[in-house]
Design goal:
With 263 residues, this protein is an alpha/beta fold. It has one domain: 3-Layer(aba) Sandwich (Alkaline Phosphatase, subunit A), CATH 3.40.720. Helix content is 32%, strand content 16%. The chain is built from ten helices and ten strands. Strands 5-4-6-1-7-8-2-9 form an eight-stranded mixed β-sheet, sandwiched between helices. Strand 4, helix 5 and strand 5 form a beta-alpha-beta unit. The longest helix has 17 residues. The chain starts with 8 loop residues before the first strand and ends in a 5-residue tail after the last helix.
């Protein structure tokens, strides 16, 4: 039994285009973790399509984006939660599966879609992005070495995020990573919280998505209070000790809703 400590690291996995009901019924491993630890029943994405939701999580607002255009179409001069953490002397990283080069700003590689990699849009942070926005090839060593960042995000490729493949594929992929995480020093320290969510639903469930919170403090915790992706922005910032960006300022607190211990 891992003893819960204050959350000092958050690692977020983002799946694609499925509702709360779809994910709980078609992702048995993930649903099992939700029931074992905690999940939200009234967590909603911001809008459609994908990109505005990723930008909202990373930047505290959508910056008026309403499509899935590339960083060349939507360069953002503002600050992200990743850049905030680094500026505060903390660590940040995005692990994007199949990405052909660090901080890639165009699609390519093994089913890599830049619209699912929000840090690549924040042009003022491009230097940090090119250092710390990397492929998942390095994630194994980071997990086993206990070197997960303060603020982290894992972006599956277009198959493992259930965009182009079944939810069962995404479930098996997530199980593979969680098996490694549960065996790793960051989890065993009691200070790591893992969050799994989805960018948006399938346009059929009022944008309600499954959001699972995995931390030793959680035991069969079903949270019914309203939460949004801006609550996730706020959680990143609470853990990193950085100011709230835009909508995160007034967003319902995810940490308070789940009773997560913070420093």
């Amino acid at each position: 039994m891992v003893q819960p400590g204050a959350v000092t690291k958050v690692l977020v996995f983002v799946e694609e285009n499925h509702s709360l009901s779809q994910m709980t019924s078609q992702m048995p491993y993930t649903a099992g973790l939700a029931q074992q630890f905690g999940y939200a029943t009234h967590y909603t994405a911001i809008r459609h399509p994908s990109l505005p939701n990723y930008i909202a999580i990373a930047g505290g607002q959508t910056y008026g984006i309403s499509d899935d255009g590339s960083p060349s179409v939507h360069p953002i001069s503002g600050q992200s939660v990743f850049g905030q953490a680094i500026a505060a002397g903390k660590s940040a990283a995005v692990y994007a599966e199949g990405m052909p080069a660090n901080c890639a700003t165009t699609d390519g590689g093994s089913s890599y879609a830049v619209k699912h990699n929000p840090w690549a849009y924040f042009t003022a942070e491009r230097g940090s992005c090119q250092k710390y926005d990397v492929s998942t090839n390095s994630l194994d060593a980071v997990i086993t070495g206990g070197k997960l960042p303060t603020v982290g995000m894992v972006v599956p490729n277009l198959c493992n995020d259930a965009h182009d493949c079944p939810l069962s594929t995404a479930d098996t992929w997530f199980q593979g990573w969680m098996t490694k995480i549960f065996a790793g020093p960051d989890w065993r320290s009691g200070h790591l919280a893992v969050v799994l969510t989805a960018d948006e639903d399938d346009n059929a469930s009022s944008n309600a998505v499954l959001t699972v919170v995995i931390h030793p403090s959680q035991t069969a915790n079903v949270v019914t209070s309203p939460l949004t992706h801006y609550s996730l922005t706020r959680l990143y910032e609470e853990v990193a000790g950085t100011p709230f960006l835009f909508e995160a300022t007034s967003a319902p607190s995810l940490s308070a809703a789940f009773g997560l211990p913070l420093k």
